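pls read this protein.

:::
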Amino acid sequence: MPPHILPIILLSISNLFMTLAWYGHLKFKAAPLLPVICVSWGIAFFEYCLAVPANRWGHSVYPAA
């Protein structure tokens, strides 16, 4: 896979995880707040596992600006 494509793919998947983490809880309005927060942070952890490598690899291919 070309090195300039992988960061885009990883960041796109990362965006899906973060959207789920931020807005997915709205379907479960009756759920207690603390478990919802923990689940959202758990989902966000996987988002960071994709975003951090994507940003590092992307920085070697794309300019920061």
In short: The chain has one domain: 6-61. Residues 14 and 47 are 5 Å apart (CA to CA).
